[in-house]
Amino acid sequence: MKVGIIGATGYGGLELIRFLHNHPEVQQIELFTSSDEGAIFSSKFGHLLTIQDTPLQKIDIETLAHLDVVFTSTPSGVTSTLLPPLVGVGPKIIDLSGDYRLKDLEVFEKWYNKQPAPKQLVKQSVYGLTEWNERNIQLAHLVANPGCYPTAVLLSILPLIKEGLIDPNYLVIDAKSGVSGAGNKLSQTTHYSEMNENFSIYKVNEHQHIPEIEQAIELFADVKTTITFNTHLVPMTRGILATTYAPVINGVSNEQLTECLMETYKDHPFVRVVSSGTSIGTSRVKGSNYCDILVKLDERTNRATIVSVIDNLVKGAAGQAIQNMNVQFHMPQTFGLDVIPLFI
Ligand SMILES: NC(=O)C1=CN([C@@H]2O[C@H](COP(=O)(O)OP(=O)(O)OC[C@H]3O[C@@H](n4cnc5c(N)ncnc54)[C@H](OP(=O)(O)O)[C@@H]3O)[C@@H](O)[C@H]2O)C=CC1
Ligand SMILES: CC(=O)N[C@@H](CCC(=O)OP(=O)(O)O)C(=O)O
């Protein structure tokens, strides 16, 4: 297979290269840039010396049209104009940005403060939460890969909402991310001296992933709800830990909550349910495509604490994108992604 990456020089793009390099069905990886045409990739990223010594190419629709798959890992607002001429002319497209996730264009405009993509394309795009949308992903020309936070949150709460074990009307979700979630651009908030030793909350009640999570709860669990969702920046490079506090339906036990998650994901290689213990952290999934989930009922309050951890750049971005490519091409989901996390 021949694959292309637009935005190869970004964090998501670099992770795509890392995993695609080991993919048994990928023979050729072409890299595209909007800013550094002709540059030898390994001269920009020394860790890829002898691995990716190819030049960066100009983004050109005719060249892209000959590929089997194109991953777009660009800032929001880019693929809404870049992709329309490419959809349907050849390659399957997997977009890691938020441009094709929200079905309501006004909602997109409000939360991203950007012009939306063309309505027809947004309509045909398929939300790429792999474990929950496999059949549609198989048929999709354009996959809208989920956001990093929504991936962590949705995998952990959807089964419990769908099975009616928790009350979806009072969900409070508290999520924390490493700084690579913000991409490779420098900014005041990711500046070392302002981020290091500083645990902060940001976009309070205004995060663009709020409507994405609500939309997916409606799509997959058939429940219309609003959530309280907040995000925090942790002075570390990778990882998301998302904690949801949810009222439990009367009479539901801790065992039922865990069982529900285990049953849902028993045939899914990348979601692991932690069946005992009271601790979980991002190191156990670092560098891997795993999402690990722990649920614990607080019997005093009858609320469940539901915790999930992912690597934002892998299951939250490049890993899930490759998992979706595997689904689209009827390959095992683990192709290219079968690595042990970098625990230490
Ligand atoms: N970082 C994360 O954890 C996650 C990110 N995402 C989403 O994935 C996308 C990529 O994220 P990330 O890799 O972190 O971002 P980065 O900022 O690290 O990289 C984005 C890349 O896009 C390219 N780019 C910038 N502007 C344009 C343009 N106008 N046209 C074409 N290419 C452009 C740049 O490469 P060049 O200059 O070479 O063209 C740049 O290296 C974003 O939409 C992000 O929101 C989703 C989930 C998780
Ligand atoms: C730490 C950090 O800043 N994370 C980013 C996640 C970006 C992302 O995934 O946004 P898209 O919806 O555009 O894909 C944020 O909170 O905005």
Automatic annotation (TrEMBL):
It is an enzyme of class 1 (oxidoreductase). Pfam families: Semialdhyde_dh, Semialdhyde_dhC_1. PROSITE patterns: ARGC. It comes from the Bacteria. Residues 2-140 form the Semialdehyde dehydrogenase NAD-binding domain. One of its GO terms (biological process) is L-arginine biosynthetic process. Gene3D superfamilies: Dihydrodipicolinate Reductase, domain 2 (3.30.360.10), NAD(P)-binding Rossmann-like Domain (3.40.50.720). Its EC number is 1.2.1.38. The keyword Iron-sulfur does not apply. Its main location: cytoplasm. Pathway: Amino-acid biosynthesis; L-arginine biosynthesis; N(2)-acetyl-L-ornithine from L-glutamate: step 3/4. Keywords: Amino-acid biosynthesis, Arginine biosynthesis, Cytoplasm, NADP, Oxidoreductase. One of its GO terms (cellular component) is cytoplasm. It is found in: Cytoplasm. GO terms for molecular function: N-acetyl-gamma-glutamyl-phosphate reductase activity; NAD binding; NADP+ binding. The active site is at C148. InterPro entries: AGPR, AGPR_AS, AGPR_dimerisation_dom, AGPR_type-1, NAD(P)-bd_dom_sf, Semialdehyde_DH_NAD-bd. CDD domains: AGPR_1_C (cd23934), AGPR_1_N (cd17895). It catalyses: N-acetyl-L-glutamate 5-semialdehyde + phosphate + NADP(+) = N-acetyl-L-glutamyl 5-phosphate + NADPH + H(+). Catalyzes the NADPH-dependent reduction of N-acetyl-5-glutamyl phosphate to yield N-acetyl-L-glutamate 5-semialdehyde. HAMAP family: ArgC_type1. Belongs to the NAGSA dehydrogenase family. Type 1 subfamily. This is N-acetyl-gamma-glutamyl-phosphate reductase. It comes from Lysinibacillus halotolerans. The gene is argC.
